[in-house]
Amino acid sequence: MYFATLASGSSGNAICVGEENRSLLVDCGIAAKRVLTNLEMIDIAAPQLEGIIITHEHSDHVKGAGVLARKLKIPVYATAGIWQEIEMVLGDINSEQKRIIDRDIYLAGMDVKLFPTSHDSRESYGLKITGKTHTLGIATDSGIVTEEMHRNLRGCDAYVVEANHDLETLWHGRYPYYLKKRVSGNAGHLSNVQLAEALTEWLDENTQKVVLAHLSEENNTPQMALSTVVEMLRDSQAKKKCANLKIRVAPRHYPHQLITLG
Question: How far apart are CA 44 and CA 37, in angstroms?
């Protein structure tokens, strides 16, 4: 299994996941042209993409999906509730490309399970993607760590997970009060500390990689997110079980290098 973020943050999100020569895209919140350029940068051929899965309706996760689906003639997968919110945004998607899903699908040779997160959207989901030998957990856009997140994310081989903000930086920053409340609330975004606490429960001896994603440009920095998570994990029992764990930060505007599990 391989994966890479193509963009990450409130300006747009997209994650490529695949095995062998088959791939899927989780969200498409950047322009289709940028998706294709960023795929080329990590040596993934666009014809390998077999579909786009949408985790929720916010524009930083969907705004390029319609154009990309039409250009590559691939389907878009989303729950019925999310489709009600995104259909007008995506534009002319034919019936063959509109795939309404529940919680479990098989795409690009991998099993994909959706589980709820806690975000201020109609519906919002994380994903557990299982290939032939490895499992990737994806969870961004959640104000709290839900029980569903705990159940599905324990023991994955790799993660792309949200470390959105440093709480002190948020509350001393320039955001208006209502936005600070939104970001830090139960339907907002996970802080660096919240994620680190969750990772102490999720990591297992097989875990190889953690990619910190959806960082706030205003209320976080890559260095702050990485140092907080590393420091909180350093003496945890979970970290001791996975001595070769690598923790990285997803770039905001360009792709992370392709990560291959093995």
Answer: 10
Q: What angle do CA 255, 257, 262 make, to 5 degrees?
A: 135
DSSP 104-163: EEEETTEEEEEEE---SSS--EEEEEE-SS-EEEEE-S-SS--HHHHHHHTT-SEEEEE-
Task: For tokens 């806690």, name the residue.
Answer: 118
Given pLDDT bands bounded at 50, 70 and 90, which one contains residue 37?
A: very high
Is the model's pLDDT at 72 over the cut of 90?
A: yes
Reduced to 3 states, what is the DSSP secondary structure of residue 246?
strand
- Mean pLDDT of the 196-212 span: 96
Name residue 52's amino acid. Answer: I
If you search the block for the tokens 């948020």, which residue do you land on? 170
What pTM did the predictor assign?
0.97
Q: CB neighbours of 148 closer than 8 A, spacing ≥ 6?
A: 115, 116, 117, 126
Domain ranges for the chain: 2-253
Q: What is the CATH number of domain 2-253?
A: 3.60.15.10
Contacts of residue 170, defined as CB under 8 A and 6 or more positions apart, other chains included, come to: 180, 183, 184, 191, 216, 219
Structure tokens at 204: 């297992």
The number of CA neighbours under 13 Å toward the Cβ of 217 is 9
- In the chain, the amino acid numbered 220 is N
Q: What pLDDT sits at residue 256?
A: 98
CB-based burial of residue 41 (10 Å sphere; 0-12 exposed, 13-18 middle, 19+ buried)? Answer: middle
Residue 46: exposed, middle, or buried by beta-carbon count in 10 A (0-12, 13-18, 19+)?
Answer: middle
- Residue 253 and residue 232 in contact, taking contact as beta carbons nearer than 8 Å: no
